[in-house]
Write a structure and sequence with these properties.
With about 375 residues, this protein is of the alpha/beta class. It folds into two domains: about 130 residues, Glycerate kinase, domain 1 (Rossmann fold); about 220 residues, Glycerate kinase, domain 2 (Alpha-Beta Complex). About 35% of the residues lie in helices and about 20% in strands. β1, α1 and β2 form a beta-alpha-beta unit.
Length: about 375
């Protein structure tokens, strides 16, 4: 009997990790020659909260927060583990593209203020003894904002000023004009840990803005202005000795992770640590095959994202890797382990729109191909 680990990540716009697992179980689970181990996974991005619910008994709490694009409000979720006094947050639920209409996807105008609203609401629940929180774990990834977490901090008292001492609205297009800011260092009575899905730095050509800005909606000119603004904020912190800066400042979540660290003293945990230790995948002994799923696999996927981390980990253990993804960037194949087979869903369909609409059919066809790989 062949042992196969199915570590499924979400397929954006199609299904979350738990649903992807369910579909593969339906297609592969009837084979008597296979012993399947199912592990839904997340690197902190889309589907993070649902994955955490699979591993922990979470009570779902609902909070009213601001949208990233105007003063309107919506309801977001948090997962509360009362036994261990931990609360789980998915940043993509609050700041992701899925909550930002296409007409409003202008990152220079977007704010992470909704995360600030959520923090205030949780603090109120803690202070009123409605919940008891010792630790908050925030999945950072899948955001549509690029504001260094300053919008979040604006709800907690941060104020930004230009060279004339005039207070400015805290949105990225204004950061380049920043000269000083006021920050009261709010007291958070619990530990904050952020799970980052990428390893890139905050600044530079491989940083948050130039790596992910385009897919969020930034023009080339806007990228340079936002980068200049980020540099201004970091320099204000540095030269005024407001904060001892870490050697490496994370670019995850459009700088949201950096905001948590610089302003709220959060600790950073890589997706690899989260997957192998917190979700327990590091305890799994050698399996003949490891099936990994990812919506799109490209250069970003090997910068700390779930599939890339697990691919490296299990290939070193001698497992054959099968990567099932919506689309695959062939230019990265030379950077991957040799014992890997790629099953790309897009080849089954005429267009990306069709592949999203008929996602379940794609899983069915991919499963046939996967079984052929396993049995050869």
């Amino acid at each position: 009997m062949k042992k196969i680990l199915i570590a499924a990540n979400s397929f954006k716009e199609c299904a979350d990790s738990v649903t992807v697992i369910k579909y593969f179980a339906g297609e592969l689970g009837s084979s008597p020659e296979l012993k399947l181990i199912f592990k839904p996974i997340s690197d902190g991005g889309d589907g993070f909260l649902n994955v955490c619910r699979e591993y922990h008994k979470l009570e779902i709490l609902k909070y009213r927060v601001s949208t990233p694009y105007n003063d309107s409000k919506f309801i977001c979720k948090a997962g509360y583990d009362g036994q261990n006094k931990v609360i789980y947050i998915e940043s993509a639920d609050i700041l992701g593209l899925k909550v930002i209409p296409k007409a409003n996807r202008h990152p220079v105008l977007l704010s992470s203020k909704g995360m600030g609203d959520l923090l205030i609401a949780i603090l109120n629940d803690v202070n009123s003894k409605k919940i008891n929180v010792k630790k908050m774990i925030v999945g950072i990834g899948g955001t549509g904002i690029n504001d260094l977490g300053l919008g979040m901090c604006s709800k907690l008292g941060l104020k930004l000023f230009d060279s004339n001492g005039k207070e400015m609205e805290i949105i990225p297009e204004n950061f380049q004009y920043a000269s000083s800011f006021l920050w009261g260092r709010i007291n958070i009575p619990f530990e904050i840990e952020v799970i980052i899905d990428v390893k890139n730095p905050l600044l530079g050509k491989d940083g948050a803005t130039f790596t992910y800005g385009k897919q969020k909606g930034l023009t080339r000119k806007e990228m340079f202005n936002v980068e200049k603004g980020f540099e201004k904020i970091i320099n204000i912190l540095k030269y005024n000795e407001l904060k001892k800066l870490p050697k490496q400042i994370s670019g995850a979540g459009g700088g949201l992770a950096a905001g948590f660290v610089l302003f709220l003293n959060a600790n950073v945990k890589s997706s690899e640590q989260f997957l192998l230790k917190d979700l327990g995948l590091g305890k799994i002994k050698k399996t003949a095959f490891v099936l990994l799923t990812e919506g799109a696999f490209d250069g970003q996927s090997i910068m700390g994202k779930a599939a890339g981390c697990l691919m490296e980990h299990f290939s070193k253990k001698g497992s054959q890797i099968i990567l099932c993804c919506g689309k695959f960037d062939k230019s990265v194949k030379k950077l991957l382990p040799k014992n890997i087979a790629v099953v790309e869903l897009k080849k089954y369909f005429k267009s990306e729109k069709e592949s999203i609409k008929n996602f379940r059919k794609g899983i069915k066809l991919a499963s046939i191909e996967i079984l052929q790989i396993i049995n050869n």
